[in-house]
Amino acid sequence: MAGVNRGPASGDELGDDPAGVVVDAVGKTYDDGGTPVRALDDVSFAVESGEFVCVVGPSGCGKTTLFRIIAGLTEATDGEIRVAGSPVTGPTTDMGVVFQEYHLFPWLTVEENVGFGLERTDRSAAERERRVDEMLDLVGLTEFRDSYPKSLSGGMKQRVAIARSLAVDPELLLMDEPFGAVDAQTREMLQRELLDVWASTGKTALFVTHDVAEAVTLADRIVVMASEPGRIAEIVDVDVSRPRERGDPAFGEHVARVRDLIGARP
Amino acid sequence: MATDTGREFDGSGLQAGLGLDDPRRLLRGFAGLVGFVVLWYLVSLTQPPIVLPSPVAVAAEFRGQFLSGTMPEALASSIRHWVPGTIAGTGLGVGAGVALAWSGLLDDVTAPLVRVLRPVPPLALIGFAIAWFGLNHAGAAFIIAVGGFWINFYASYGAVEEVSDDLIDVGRTLGVRGDLDMVRSVVLPASLPGILTGVRTGLGRCWMLVIAAEIFSVPGIGREILRASNNLRVDRAIAYILVLSLMYLLVDVAFRAVQRRVLAWQA
């Protein structure tokens, strides 16, 4: 049975959690002269260190806005984001960010893409090289290290993007519909791989998606959002042991419960 | 061929640049060229040489000018203002285009100035060229640089404006801090294809401006063309126009080979 966490956690007790994320009363209003649009309203939840949390919601519920605010790419109108207790004021390498459309640097090879962030750290060249090797091995792309992104499939590109974001060893992996642009078969494979990577690295993961089954496959907890204005409908614990099978009745119950929450709200 | 072209481009790139990699295209091009020369020859039979000299006469004049040393000397002189003019115009144009497209502040400050200066044709600046630099290579280089500047300015400006915000965001999340790092690591490489297209167009335009720049008697190919025309030596004028065309072709082919190499990631 789906466990339910009524009301968002305040998150204050997570203030010093080394990789914890606190989303504290975040709101966003777009006001470009016309009627102001409230994209997000009073969104609060916390992600514990090492936890895998998915944010799901219908399109237009502001989940991408929330993703950009957490990443420090967009400023919130109200509230704040804290990572390991410090407010996020801009992009930080404490977070590895993965976007839906990969956004690899097309002029760099796979290897150079993965090493991009490392060049801005104080690691030595030998350390950087070792780290790149490690990351390529992690996502199984060692033999494509000298290829340019143009010659890669969508799934391979997203693996490079994940390796690139993990290379600088961030505490938190933040992803916005990273598997939204690949076919269903590749998506399932990438989901399994992501869980492996998450389990083996112990990173905290915050994953935005509109795919309920994907959220139930991946998450410890699911933040279900509603729209107009974008807000939290409910936070659902996923009490299904991994690896999760889609045929499992408990899996189906969770999917139905989350779908219901999304559909029940306007 | 591959041995002496250096590391910038190898023989295969040069072949591709000339279209030598496709024998059928090469053959068609050759046929078109032969057809044109034959037509030229036939028409020239019906006209006095002062109106249209035959290709044979032009070839003879070309040979004569070349062997007498006049042509190599004129070419060397033109190169002496084409090279600095092109380098200055290209460098300043790309630099200004990138800087203004990237910095909203710079763009706002300079927008009215750019609008006023843009419509001024390089030739209208001949008076300034003479006053500031004199009747010499520097004066001619100035005219060439002005023409090259604008082409590169607008190409680079447009290319930088088109760089996707998403790549900038990715750069920021990966630790790129400050304008200089962002421009160097993300903006420039992302806009390089557009910038290089501008540079290539500019190289050609600068060769054309060689003629204009030599209007005020700076020695070179352009002055020889003008002199020959004034003396009704159409055969000589055509011979020098051919030199100009060949130089343009050479530079363009070489640049395309470099371009292909630098933008290998696009292929």
TrEMBL record, chain A:
Q: Does the keyword Disulfide bond apply?
A: no
Name the Enzyme Commission number(s) assigned to this protein: 7.3.2.6
**Catalyzed reactions:** tungstate(in) + ATP + H2O = tungstate(out) + ADP + phosphate + H(+)
Query: Where in the cell does this protein reside?
Result: Cell membrane
- Keyword Nucleotide-binding assigned to the entry: answer is yes
Which UniProt keywords are listed? ATP-binding, Molybdenum, Nucleotide-binding, Transport
Q: Domain of life, per the record?
A: Archaea
The text of the family note is:
Belongs to the ABC transporter superfamily. Sulfate/tungstate importer (TC 3.A.1.6) family.
Instruction: Fill in the subunit field for this protein.
Output: The complex is composed of two ATP-binding proteins (WtpC), two transmembrane proteins (WtpB) and a solute-binding protein (WtpA).
Q: What's this protein's function? A: Part of the ABC transporter complex WtpABC involved in molybdate/tungstate import. Responsible for energy coupling to the transport system.
What is the protein name stated in its UniProt record? Molybdate/tungstate import ATP-binding protein WtpC
Q: Which organism was this protein described from?
A: Halorubrum saccharovorum DSM 1137
